[in-house]
Design a protein that fits this description.
By secondary structure, this protein is an alpha+beta fold. A 4-stranded mixed β-sheet has the order 1-2-7-4. It has a 3-stranded antiparallel β-sheet with strand order 3-9-8. Helix 15 crosses helix 21. The longest helix is centred in the middle third of the chain and has 30 residues.
Length: about 500
């Protein structure tokens, strides 16, 4: 009996092995370019063991020798057959031209058990996303963003106060600062003000509750990592695993903060031109309409606030950090930028209005080049939703089947020497008006592209530029012995973030 059981078990193991071998030979059997994969884990083993960050991992696949010379390459994300696109023309087709076939992302949270995680613009599947997008896209357009600018200026002034209180050396008028945390305090206060109408006071009190929640939501605990990997790489299992994008503590905090902010604003009748004003107007619209759809979902408004805080504070703080790091390494570029700020501030009586800060040419060039080297979104994915599939390549006749994920390495694309000469060099001149015209379309997509590109791009850029202005008008930044010679990235972060501390010397040097 024991021998029979052993033989049966062995037979099942052998059968499973041969099935897996055939499954992972999918691209080979089709005769299409592909990167050899490992059984069960596919091409994401290095990601699972934290060898590098998401962005670096997909860039490594983009640059794999097996991918060179091809417009697309087959990969496996765990057990899923997937494609990695490398040609800007193909990327444009998927993100823009044929968006109707790729309107949903591959990753998703549990729509039944995790309403807060699934009811936001990023994770929502196409039908839900379409309704949310129609509601919110006008609210982050030029006019609304301009109305929010005074709120950012207020936080910018608090950032100046925070920096003025640092322990400067009296002889050198300088201080060494860990940059990433300081920038995170600033962006946390910005998002708290815009999304909740609340003074989070992170700059005044780094242990304030809002800042603590921002740290908590990114804490790489084993259970959270399991949920995130399921959401991104095995979304078919989100219901079985019971995934949650956020922890119970973060969800509770978001619900109480959003409800409190709305109730207080209704009671006071104040107007701040922030997201809470928008929520109140939408709630009134929903209460008086039978066709309000998603707005009557319990967690609809909380979901937008929760994701805005998660997405807004980390990406913007990292972008400011990367910008100051590069300016410290390139003092001639810093001098040029500060000269531009001096001229603009002098004309504006010491302040910059929204239109000025949005259009300063060299500031724009610097930030755009930072976002090329360190994009806010390091990779994108879409899922084919056409029942008949999608003809990707007429030469091979390959048709992407329904449900297959398609990936785009934004970091790989924007560091590709075919598209960007000397791609690892920091050179804002790439984005001068005349050089901009030479860019290959879809070779620069730090906020995504097409209908599902980042809705808050204008606000994110404004947040970054405001922080930079309030720092650089008072200080110049220099490298110090603690400054890393090369930037390395946090392998456990989903966005591109510096690994460890990023230290720079700040020298008092007011320009206005």
């Amino acid at each position: 009996m024991l021998a029979v059981g052993f033989a049966l078990t062995l037979g099942l193991i052998i059968a499973a092995y041969y099935w897996l071998r055939q499954h992972y030979r999918y691209w080979e059997k089709l005769g299409l370019p592909h990167i050899p994969s490992t059984l069960i884990v596919g091409n994401v083993f290095d990601l699972l063991r934290y060898r590098w960050s998401f962005g670096e991992h997909f860039m490594a696949l983009y640059n794999d020798p097996a991918a060179q010379g091809h417009d697309f390459v087959g990969i496996h994300v765990l057990h899923n057959h997937a494609l990695l696109l490398r040609a800007p023309e193909l990327i444009k087709r998927v993100l823009v031209s044929d968006f109707s076939t790729f309107g949903s992302r591959f990753e998703r949270s549990d729509p039944v058990g995790d309403a807060m995680g699934s009811l936001n613009l990023f994770f929502a599947q196409y039908d839900i996303w379409k309704e949310i997008h129609q509601i919110f896209s006008p609210l982050f357009a030029y006019g609304k963003t301009k109305q929010m600018y005074p709120l950012l200026q207020q936080v910018g002034c608090k950032l100046e106060q925070y920096m003025a209180a640092l322990n400067f050396d009296e002889k050198t008028d300088s201080v060494i600062v860990e940059l990433k945390e300081m920038c995170a305090l600033y962006t946390t206060d910005v998002i708290a003000s815009i999304a909740f109408g609340i003074e989070a006071n992170s700059l005044a009190n780094p242990k304030a509750e809002f800042r603590r929640m921002c740290i908590e939501v990114n804490e790489p605990r084993p259970k959270r990592l399991l949920h995130l990997f399921t959401i991104f790489f095995a979304p078919q299992l989100v219901g079985r695993v019971g995934t949650h994008l956020y922890s119970p503590e973060y969800e509770k905090f978001m619900r109480s903060s959003t409800d409190y902010a709305i109730e207080e604003r209704v009671r006071s009748g104040a107007l701040r031109n922030d997201l809470i004003d928008i929520f109140i107007a939408l709630k009134r619209q929903a209460d008086g309409s039978a066709k309000s759809g998603m707005m009557k979902e319990r967690d609809f408004f909380v979901a937008q606030s929760a994701f805005l805080l998660l997405a807004g504070f980390d990406t913007s703080s990292s972008t400011i950090t990367f910008t100051l790091y590069e300016l410290a390494k390139h003092p001639e570029m810093q001098r040029r930028l500060r000269a531009e700020l001096l001229e603009a501030l002098t004309k504006g009586g010491g302040e910059l209005d929204y239109d000025t800060i949005s259009t300063l040419p060299y500031l724009r060039m610097v930030v755009d080049e930072v976002l090329r080297l360190y994009p806010a979104t390091t990779f994108l994915d879409r899922r084919c939703t056409a029942a008949e599939g999608y003809l990707l390549d007429s030469k091979s006749g390959y048709r992407i089947p329904e449900g297959m994920p398609v990936y785009i390495s934004v970091l790989g694309l924007q560091r590709d020497e075919r598209l960007w000469p000397k791609p690892l060099e920091f050179d804002p001149e790439r984005f001068s008006p005349e050089n901009r015209e030479q860019h290959i379309p879809m070779s620069y997509i730090p906020f995504g592209a097409g209908p599902r590109g980042c809705t808050g791009t204008l606000l994110g850029l404004l947040e970054v530029k405001t922080g930079l202005v309030h720092i650089l008008k008072n200080y110049r930044v220099e490298t110090c012995p603690l400054t890393p010679t090369e930037m390395t990235f946090d392998a456990k972060a989903f966005v591109l973030a510096p690994d460890g501390g990023t230290y720079l010397r700040f020298v008092k040097d007011k320009i206005c």
